[in-house]
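quick one, 342 residues, struct below
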Amino acid sequence: STELETHIRTPDGRAVPIQISFSQLDDAGRGGTLVLIRDLRRMRAAEKRYQELFEHHIAGVFRATLDGTILECNAAAARVLGYTDREALEGRTFWGHYRRDDQRVEEVRSHLEAEGALRDWEVPVERRDGTPITILVSLVRTEMVSGGGLDLIGSFVEVTEQVQLRRELEAMAYRDALTGLPNRRALLRYARKHLALAERQERHVGLTYLDLNHFKQINDRRGHDVGDAVLRAVADRLRESTRAEDLVARLGGDEFAVLWSDLDAPDGGALAGTRRILDASDEPLEVGDDAISVRLSAGIATYPGDGADIDALLQRADEAMYAAKEKSRGDRPIAKSEEIGP
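---
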């Protein structure tokens, strides 16, 4: 069969786009030609609406091969990726702007081949000038084939500010505003991860529960501003006295905790680290023009001997800390959970 597109004139002079198809017939030796005429006005109107939507959509829209070569795009796509016009972007590879490993690209391609679509993929990319941004992409595989690869229709919007805001909010949710230390929520999250790792590797985890002795007197006598400064100074001392792989957290008020991860033995590192913290606390804290002496009490619990989860460890370490307060009477205020019984 043969097809051609042309125009015909209506009696009132209007041009109507049509498609004419010619097909040869062979019916019992009798030849003939079948001619079909199709009115293309609706199809042309739909194409025009699609092109207008494509061109003027506020989101970046593009068509590309599966290997990422951009066949066509709208002005918004070019603008977001840092190009002055769409022609400068067409012919380049979309994956070339991706800021992560190639393995993820292969995973996306495999997903598209298997499922046909990928919705709301948060993608770290670079603009043409190297500026890092984040875009939210949806991709749909089409049935057409261009240049040997399956075509993709994609749309995206920039979400850099939204992603940054979300990260800041997440950080706030897991960060103590006064000291900048991780908070109780962060400790629980971190501990669950490392306790699971310790179980798999048959290692130990230690937890030290710390409390400032007579902190209420500092607040009452010197005011809450000084009290806040003392808490920040104590937080700094704790950071300086622990390893990079350990987590120092403020639980609230004048209570802190240190999670000692990946220990060889129940006492391997937790007791020595806690003593190091208490030694450091013997030095007065510089708060403004004052030197303020603060003593800490500490209780230690270890996994798995004192508990199988972080809640149990916190309870046992807290009990040990209060036992240390009771028995210290001027001695080093430190106790292990095993010393106070079940």
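The chain is about 35% helix and 35% strand.
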